[in-house]
C-alpha cells in the first residue's frame, strides 16, 4: 500500500445515508443527557437555597455545603477548616465557594468529558454516527486545552474526599450528644465510600501512583498500588454515576431533615 | 497492448512475498545496500505468517539448559523421518537462536521467563520447551516486528535522501504471474496491481521467492486464499525443481464446526500446555497410537504423561505431543472407527485440566476464536477438532547455504522452499525457518547481484506473452465460459477426497485424470467485470498455479509407495528404508509435470553420529547401517 | 438453510449504490461466508479483502448495518431472523471498489513514528525484561491493524481536513507501546505524540475502544496514559516540586 496508492485525496464511497446503524444508538446519549441535566438542575437549585444544610442535632452536613468556609455559615456547620471567608453578600451561598473543586474535578474528568462530548456536544453522539459539527479541533487549543488541568483538580479532590470522610465520621452523633447512628449517618458513609471509589479510580491517580513508571519490576509497591487503582479505574464510569447519585441523595436527605420535611430515621441514640 | 499498459521498474533484488521469509530477506538485501522491492498479494503485514500461533523454535536453552542445537537438530530430523536435507536442518538448528534474539533488537516483545529471558514453551516433537512465543499470537509479533524494522530502514533512507522508498519499497496487493528469464537466468518478474489491474514489470537480476504454501487447493485447510502455490508454480515454469511435493502436513487439530470455519487452526499450544485428546468414549486414545519408532520417548500411562507437565526431567511426555502426522492419523482412525465427536472430529479438552484464568492468559486467541465462531467456551467445555491441510513440506529445491534454486538468480525461502523439513515439519520450526533462510536468501541474493556484471534485459516478447496470458480470462467468450469459483471448488473437493490425508493408488490415479480435465477447462475460464480489483479475475489467474501444483503433489504421491510423515498410503502402510534414500523431484515439461527420482543427500558422519545406533536402525537400510558401523569403528581407532 | 436479504454497496470512486441480493445462509455462518457465496454464485467480481477468516489478520474490515466490524467475525445469528443485512465499505478511507478501500493513510502514519530505538549497550541475546514490564506494551502489540479504530474515530471520519495532523488511535497505541517499552532508548515519545501525532484532537469519546476487535483498551490504557504523561512533563505542580525534593527516577520513568 505504500507505493501503489495514487496521490491526490480520493473520494470516499458515496453512501447517501449519514448512518446505517439500525440499533437504538441514540438511547445511550439521551439517557446520559437526562442524567447529567438532572444533576445540573438540582445543583443549581441547591446552591441558591442557602439554607437547610446543617442538622445541628445529629451533625449532618449536606455535601454541597461542605466544607462551609464563610462567616455566613449556619452555626456549627463549619468544622476544622474554620471560616476563612467573611460574611457573603445575600445572593451568594457558601456552597458556591467550594463548588468549583468537585465541580471542576468532574467537569474535567476523562469519563465525564466522554459523556458530555457525546450527549451535549454530539461530537460524536455515538460511534459511526456523524458528529454535529462543521469544524473540529478537539482538545488541541483553548478552551478545551484547559482540560489538562484535571491533575490539579485531582489533588483538590483528594482533599474534598477527606472532608467528606470527616463529615461522615462526625455524623455519628447522638441526639443527646455522644455516639449515635441514623439513616443520615449511613447515607453519608456510603456517599464517602463512593466518592473515594470515584476519586481513586481517576486516570490521573492511576498515572501518579504507578502508571508513569517504565519498570514496574523495580517498584513493587507502586506496581501493587497501580494494580489496585486499575481495578477501580475499570469501573470509573460506574463510580462516576453512583457517586453522583449518592451526592444528590445525601444532600437531599440532609436538606429534608434540616427543613423538617422528614424525620431522621434513628437506629441508635 | 502498448507500452503504456505497463509500468517498468528496476530493482537489484525483488522479493516476492511479504511473510516472515520475504521480509527478513528484504531486510538483509537492503542492509547489504541493494535496492529492494517487496511484493505481496495482500496488504503489508497480512501475509500468512500473521496467523501463526504457537511459536518459533530455537534452542536458546532458556527454559531448560540441557537444550542446544544438536538436540534441536535431532528432533527436526526425527520429525522429518530422516528425509530432511541434513545441511538445511543443521543451519536451521544452529542459527535460529541468533535470528530470534535479533528480533528483540527490532522491538519484539516475547513472553519472559522469571529471570527476564525469552520464555519457551513445549510443542510436539521437541524434546525441551523450545518455542519462543507471545501468548498464542507469535506470528503476529514476528510479522509486525519485521514490518516495523522495514519501516525503520525506510526512515533511515528518508533521513538520507528524502525518499522513504529510495532503497526499500513495498508493493502491496500486487501479484506476480510470471518470472522473466534471459539466457536461463533471472531477469525480472511480471505481475499486476490488484487495485486497478495495471501491469508491472520489475526488472531485476535476483528474485527471492517467499510466497508460502499451497493449501488452498484443499477443501479443508487452515490456509487462506493466498496459498495457491504461486511460488511453486513460478519456480517450476522458470525451470527450477520442486522436491518432496508428496509431503503435506495435515494439522491434527482444525476446527470442525460450524461448517463455515471447518479447517481453521486450533494451535498445538493447546496440547503443549496440557490439553488432551479424547474420543466419544472419553478415552485418551493417543496412548493406543504410539508408533514403534517413538516408543522410547513417550509416556505409556496417563499418570506419567500428566506428571511430565510439572516434572519433565523425570517423566516422558504424553503422546498427545507426538509429531503432527501421527496425531492426525490417529484422529482420522478414531473417527473412521465410529468413536468421533458429533460433528466428525474428536474432543480436545483444556477445561478440566487448567483453571479458566490460566486458559485465558495462555490461549487468549483460541478462547476468543471458539467463543466468537463456535459459541464454545473452552474454559468450560471441550473443543471438537479434526485434521486440516496446513503446510507443504515440499517446495523449491535449493542449495542450503545460499538458498539458490537451479535457476541462477532465483532464490527461495520459507514455506515455498523444500528440503528443510523432510517428510514432516515440527511445529514451531517454520517460523524459525523463515528467519534463518530468509536472511540467507537476502544475503546471497545481494551477493549474486554483486557478482553479476551485466543485468540481463527482459525480452519484450516474454512480456507480451505474460500479458496476453493474464488477460485471457477477461476476453469475451460467446459460450460464457467456466466460472473460476466452480472450478476451484471442484479442484478442492478432488484434492481433499483423493489426495488427502490417507491415499491409495487407484484414487491418486483418478485424481490425475481429473486434474488433466481441469487443465483443459482452465483455458475456457471466463470472468465478468473489468481489471479493477476483480477477485474473479485474480482467481482465474491463480487457478493455473493451483492445478499445476496439484498435479505435482498427486504424481509424487502416486510414485512413493510407502508411508512416511505427511504421506500416508493405505496400500503401502509401512515406512521403507529404501525409500528414505530417494527424493522425488518435479519439474515442468511442456504443459505437464514430470517426475524423477534423485538420491537424498547423505548425512555426514558427524551429524549421523549424534543419533543412537538403535534409533538409526529404525530408519536406515542394512547397508547404510553397516557403513555407519564401519565409519564409527574408524573413528574409534583414530 | 434459509434465504436472507442482503444489501451490499457496489461501486468505485466514480460512485455506487446499495445493491440488493437474496442469498442462502446456513447455520454457523459469518457475514464473510455470505459475501463469498455472492461471489461464487451471483457476483464473481464483488471486491472484498480477507485472509485468515479467523479475526487474526485484520483484512476484512467493513461496516455491517452501519457498525464497523470484521466481516469474518460477525456471525449471522446476531441478526434478527428477517433483518436485512447491509454491508458497506469503511467510510473514512477512499474507496477502491465495492468493499475494498485504500488504507494507505495508515501506512503513511506508521512511517512517521520514530522506530524502536535499541539500547546502545546491549547485544542481541542480552536483552533482559520482566514480564510485568512488557505486559502493557504487549497489549498494544495485539493490534491486527484492521484500522477499524481509525475508521470510526470521528476526528477524521467526520473531518477529512484533520487527516494531515492526526495519526489516529492505532498509532497512539504504537506511541504508548514504545513509551512503555522497558528498553526503548528514546525519551521524547510523549512530546512526539502531543506535537506531531495530534494526540490533543482526541476527545476520549472511546469509539476506538468500542470497535477494536482485539479488545485493546485503546483509550484507557494508551491514549489517556499518554495524555497524563504529557501532563507529567508539562503541567503537573507536584512533579515539579517532587523533582526538586526526591530522586528523579521515582517520578519519571527511567530509560
Ligand atoms: C493458522 C496457522 C498457524 C501456524 N502456526 C505456526 C506456528 O505456531 N509455528 C510455526 O513455526 N509455523 C506455524 N505455521 C506455519 C507458518 O506460519 C507458515 O509456514 C509461514 O508463515 C510461511 O511464511 P512465508 O514467509 O513462507 O510465507 P507467508 O507468510 O505465507 O507469505 C507469503 C507471501 O507471499 C505473497 N505471495 C504469494 N504469492 C504471490 C504472488 N504470486 N505474487 C506476489 N506475492 C505473492 C503473499 O501475499 C504473502 O505476502 C502456521 C500456519 C498457519 C496457517
Ligand atoms: S477516543 Fe479519541 S482516538 Fe478514540 S475514537 Fe474517540 S476521538 Fe478518536
Ligand atoms: S487497535 Fe484494534 S481497532 Fe485499531 S487497528 Fe488495532 S486491532 Fe484494529
Ligand atoms: S476523575 Fe475521572 S478521570 Fe480523573
Ligand atoms: S479475514 Fe482476517 S480478520 Fe477477517
Automatic annotation (TrEMBL), chain A:
It comes from the Bacteria. Keywords: Membrane, Transmembrane, Transmembrane helix. The chain crosses the membrane at residues 25-49, 91-112, 152-172, 178-198, 238-262. This is Succinate dehydrogenase.
From TrEMBL, chain B:
Residues 489-605 form the Fumarate reductase/succinate dehydrogenase flavoprotein-like C-terminal domain. Keywords: FAD, Flavoprotein, Oxidoreductase. Its cofactor is FAD. Pfam families: FAD_binding_2 (PF00890), Succ_DH_flav_C (PF02910). InterPro entries: FAD-dep_OxRdtase_2_FAD-bd (IPR003953), FAD/NAD-bd_sf (IPR036188), Fum_R/Succ_DH_flav-like_C_sf (IPR037099), Fum_Rdtase/Succ_DH_flav-like_C (IPR015939), SdhA/FrdA/AprA (IPR030664), Succ_DH/fumarate_Rdtase_cat_sf (IPR027477). Residues 12-431 form the FAD-dependent oxidoreductase 2 FAD-binding domain. This is Succinate dehydrogenase flavoprotein subunit. It comes from Actinorhabdospora filicis. The lineage of its organism: Bacteria, Bacillati, Actinomycetota, Actinomycetes, Micromonosporales.
TrEMBL record, chain C:
Pathway: Carbohydrate metabolism; tricarboxylic acid cycle. Belongs to the succinate dehydrogenase/fumarate reductase iron-sulfur protein family. Keywords: 2Fe-2S, 4Fe-4S, Iron, Iron-sulfur, Metal-binding, Oxidoreductase. It comes from Actinorhabdospora filicis. Pfam families: Fer2_3 (PF13085), Fer4_8 (PF13183). This is Fumarate reductase iron-sulfur subunit. InterPro entries: 2Fe-2S_ferredoxin-like_sf (IPR036010), 2Fe-2S_ferredoxin-type (IPR001041), 2Fe2S_fd_BS (IPR006058), 4Fe4S_Fe-S-bd (IPR017896), Beta-grasp_dom_sf (IPR012675), Helical_ferredxn (IPR009051), SDH/FRD_Iron-Sulfur (IPR050573), Succ_DH/fum_Rdtase_Fe-S (IPR004489). Residues 4-91 form the 2Fe-2S ferredoxin-type domain. NCBIfam families: dhsB (TIGR00384), PRK12386.1 (NF009052). The keyword Membrane does not apply. One of its GO terms (molecular function) is 4 iron, 4 sulfur cluster binding. Its cofactor is [3Fe-4S] cluster; [4Fe-4S] cluster; [2Fe-2S] cluster. GO terms for biological process: respiratory electron transport chain; tricarboxylic acid cycle. GO terms for cellular component: plasma membrane.
Amino acid at each position: 500500500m505504500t507505493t501503489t496508492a495514487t496521490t491526490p485525496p480520493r473520494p470516499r464511497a458515496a453512501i447517501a445515508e449519514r448512518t446505517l446503524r439500525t440499533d437504538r444508538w441514540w438511547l445511550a446519549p439521551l439517557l446520559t443527557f437526562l442524567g447529567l441535566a438532572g444533576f445540573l438542575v438540582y445543583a443549581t437549585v441547591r446552591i441558591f437555597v442557602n439554607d437547610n444544610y446543617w442538622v445541628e442535632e445529629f451533625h449532618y452536613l449536606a455535601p454541597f455545603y461542605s466544607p462551609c468556609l464563610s462567616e455566613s455559615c449556619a452555626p456549627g456547620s463549619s468544622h476544622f477548616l474554620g471560616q476563612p471567608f467573611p460574611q457573603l453578600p445575600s445572593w451568594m451561598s457558601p456552597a458556591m465557594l467550594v463548588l468549583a473543586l468537585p465541580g471542576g474535578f468532574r467537569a474535567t474528568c476523562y469519563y465525564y468529558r466522554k459523556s458530555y462530548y457525546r450527549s451535549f456536544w454530539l461530537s460524536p453522539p455515538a460511534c459511526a454516527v456523524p458528529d454535529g459539527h462543521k469544524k473540529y479541533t478537539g482538545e488541541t487549543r483553548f478552551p478545551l486545552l484547559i482540560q489538562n488541568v484535571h491533575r490539579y483538580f485531582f489533588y483538590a479532590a483528594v482533599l474534598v474526599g477527606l472532608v467528606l470522610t470527616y463529615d461522615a465520621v462526625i455524623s455519628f452523633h447522638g441526639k443527646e450528644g455522644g455516639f449515635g447512628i441514623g439513616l443520615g449517618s449511613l447515607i453519608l458513609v456510603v456517599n464517602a465510600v463512593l466518592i473515594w471509589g470515584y476519586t481513586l479510580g481517576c486516570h490521573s491517580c492511576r498515572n501518579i501512583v504507578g502508571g508513569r513508571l517504565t519498570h514496574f519490576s523495580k517498584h513493587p509497591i507502586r506496581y501493587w498500588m497501580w494494580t489496585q487503582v486499575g481495578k477501580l479505574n475499570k469501573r470509573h464510569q460506574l463510580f462516576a454515576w453512583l457517586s453522583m447519585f449518592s451526592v444528590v441523595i445525601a444532600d437531599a436527605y440532609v436538606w429534608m431533615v434540616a427543613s423538617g420535611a422528614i424525620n431522621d430515621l434513628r437506629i441508635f441514640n | 497492448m502498448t507500452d503504456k499498459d505497463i509500468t517498468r521498474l528496476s530493482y537489484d533484488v525483488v522479493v516476492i512475498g511479504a511473510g516472515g521469509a520475504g521480509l527478513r530477506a528484504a531486510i538483509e538485501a537492503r542492509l547489504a545496500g541493494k535496492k529492494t522491492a517487496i511484493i505481496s498479494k495482500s496488504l503489508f503485514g497480512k501475509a500468512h505468517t500473521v496467523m501463526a500461533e504457537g511459536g518459533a523454535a530455537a534452542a536458546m536453552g532458556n527454559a531448560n539448559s540441557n537444550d542446544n542445537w544438536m538436540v534441536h537438530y535431532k528432533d527436526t530430523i526425527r520429525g522429518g523421518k530422516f528425509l530432511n536435507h541434513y545441511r538445511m536442518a543443521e543451519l536451521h538448528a544452529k542459527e535460529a537462536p541468533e535470528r530470534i534474539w535479533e528480533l528483540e533488537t527490532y522491538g519484539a516483545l516475547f513472553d519472559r521467563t522469571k529471570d527476564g529471558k525469552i520464555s519457551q514453551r513445549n510443542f510436539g516433537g521437541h524434546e525441551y520447551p523450545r518455542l519462543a512465543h507471545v501468548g498464542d499470537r507469535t506470528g503476529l509479533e514476528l510479522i509486525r516486528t519485521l514490518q516495523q524494522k522495514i519501516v525503520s530502514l525506510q526512515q533511515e533512507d528518508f533521513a538520507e535522501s528524502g525518499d522513504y522508498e529510495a532503497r526499500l519499497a513495498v508493493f502491496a496487493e500486487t501479484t506476480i504471474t510470471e518470472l522473466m528469464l534471459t539466457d536461463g537466468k533471472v531477469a525480472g518478474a511480471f505481475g499486476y496491481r490488484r487495485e486497478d489491474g495495471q501491469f508491472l514489470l520489475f526488472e531485476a537480476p535476483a528474485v527471492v521467492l517467499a510466497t508460502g504454501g499451497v493449501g488452498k487447493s484443499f477443501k479443508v485447510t487452515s490456509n487462506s486464499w493466498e496459498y495457491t502455490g504461486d511460488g511453486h508454480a513460478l519456480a517450476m515454469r522458470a525451470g527450477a525443481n520442486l522436491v518432496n511435493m508428496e509431503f503435506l502436513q495435515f494439522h491434527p487439530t482444525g476446527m470442525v464446526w460450524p461448517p463455515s470455519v471447518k479447517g481453521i487452526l486450533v494451535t498445538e499450544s493447546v496440547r503443549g500446555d496440557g490439553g488432551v485428546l479424547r474420543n466419544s468414549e472419553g478415552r485418551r486414545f493417543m496412548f493406543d497410537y504410539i508408533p514403534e519408532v517413538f516408543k522410547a520417548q513417550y509416556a505409556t500411562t496417563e499418570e506419567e504423561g500428566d506428571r511430565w507437565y510439572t516434572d519433565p526431567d523425570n517423566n516422558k511426555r504424553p503422546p498427545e505431543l507426538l509429531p503432527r502426522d501421527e496425531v492426525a492419523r490417529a484422529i482420522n482412525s478414531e473417527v473412521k472407527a465410529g468413536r468421533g465427536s458429533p460433528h466428525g472430529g474428536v474432543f480436545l479438552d483444556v477445561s478440566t485440566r487448567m483453571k479458566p484464568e490460566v486458559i485465558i492468559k495462555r490461549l487468549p486467541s483460541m478462547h476468543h476464536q471458539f467463543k466468537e465462531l463456535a459459541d464454545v467456551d473452552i474454559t468450560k467445555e471441550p473443543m471438537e477438532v479434526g485434521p486440516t491441510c496446513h503446510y507443504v513440506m515440499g517446495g523449491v529445491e535449493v542449495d542450503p547455504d545460499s538458498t539458490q534454486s537451479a535457476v541462477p538468480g532465483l532464490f527461495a525461502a520459507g514455506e515455498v522452499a523444500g528440503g528443510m523439513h523432510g517428510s514432516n515439519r515440527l511445529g514451531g520450526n517454520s517460523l524459525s525457518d523463515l528467519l534463518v533462510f530468509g536472511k540467507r536468501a537476502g544475503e546471497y541474493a545481494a551477493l549474486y547481484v554483486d557478482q553479476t556484471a551485466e543485468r540481463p534485459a527482459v525480452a519484450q516478447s516474454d512480456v507480451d506473452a505474460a500479458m496476453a496470458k493474464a488477460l485471457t480470462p477477461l476476453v469475451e467468450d460467446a459460450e460464457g465460459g467456466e466460472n473460476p469459483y466452480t472450478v476451484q471448488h471442484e479442484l478442492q473437493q478432488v484434492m481433499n477426497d483423493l489426495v488427502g490425508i490417507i491415499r491409495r493408488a487407484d484414487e491418486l490415479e483418478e485424481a490425475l485424470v481429473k486434474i488433466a480435465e481441469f487443465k483443459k477447462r482452465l483455458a475456457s475460464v471466463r470472468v465478468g467485470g473489468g481489471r479493477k480489483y476483480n477477485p474473479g479475475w485474480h482467481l482465474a489467474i491463480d487457478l493455473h498455479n493451483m492445478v499445476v501444483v496439484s498435479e505435482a503433489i498427486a504424481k509424487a504421491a502416486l510414485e512413493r509407495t510407502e508411508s512416511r510423515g505427511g504421506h500416508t498410503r493405505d496400500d503401502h502402510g509401512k515406512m521403507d528404508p529404501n525409500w528414505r534414500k530417494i527424493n522425488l523431484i518435479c519439474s515442468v515439461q511442456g504443459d505437464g509435470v514430470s517426475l524423477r527420482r534423485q538420491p537424498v543427500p547423505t548425512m555426514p558422519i558427524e551429524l549421523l553420529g549424534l543419533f543412537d545406533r538403535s534409533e538409526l536402525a529404525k530408519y536406515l537400510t542394512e547397508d547404510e547401517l553397516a557403513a555407519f558401523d564401519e565409519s564409527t569403528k574408524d573413528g574409534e581407532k583414530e | 438453510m434459509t434465504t436472507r436479504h442482503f444489501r451490499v454497496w457496489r461501486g468505485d470512486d466514480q460512485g455506487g449504490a446499495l445493491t440488493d441480493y437474496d442469498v442462502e445462509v446456513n447455520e454457523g455462518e459469518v457475514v464473510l461466508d455470505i459475501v463469498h457465496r455472492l461471489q461464487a454464485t451471483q457476483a464473481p467480481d464483488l471486491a472484498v479483502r480477507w485472509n485468515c477468516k479467523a479475526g487474526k489478520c485484520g483484512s476484512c474490515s467493513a461496516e455491517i448495518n452501519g457498525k464497523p466490524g470484521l466481516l469474518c467475525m460477525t456471525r449471522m445469528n446476531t441478526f434478527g431472523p428477517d433483518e436485512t443485512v447491509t454491508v458497506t465499505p469503511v467510510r473514512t478511507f477512499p474507496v477502491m471498489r465495492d468493499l475494498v478501500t485504500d488504507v494507505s493513510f495508515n501506512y503513511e502514519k506508521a512511517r512517521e513514528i520514530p522506530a524502536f530505538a535499541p539500547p546502545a549497550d546491549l547485544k542481541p541475546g542480552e536483552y533482559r525484561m520482566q514480564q510485568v514490564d512488557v505486559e502493557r506494551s504487549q497489549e498494544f502489540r495485539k493490534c491486527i491493524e484492521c484500522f477499524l479504530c481509525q475508521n470510526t474515530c470521528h476526528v477524521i471520519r467526520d473531518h477529512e481536513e484533520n487527516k494531515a495532523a492526526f495519526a489516529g488511535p492505532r498509532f497512539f497505541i504504537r506511541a504508548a507501546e514504545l513509551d512503555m517499552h522497558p528498553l526503548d532508548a528514546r525519551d521524547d515519545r510523549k512530546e512526539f505524540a502531543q506535537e506531531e501525532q495530534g494526540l490533543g484532537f482526541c476527545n476520549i469519546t472511546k469509539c476506538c475502544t468500542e470497535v477494536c476487535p482485539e479488545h485493546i483498551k485503546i483509550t484507557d490504557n494508551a491514549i489517556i496514559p499518554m495524555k497524563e504523561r504529557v501532563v507529567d512533563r508539562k503541567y503537573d505542580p507536584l512533579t515539579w516540586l517532587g523533582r526538586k525534593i526526591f530522586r528523579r527516577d521515582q517520578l519519571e520513568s527511567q530509560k
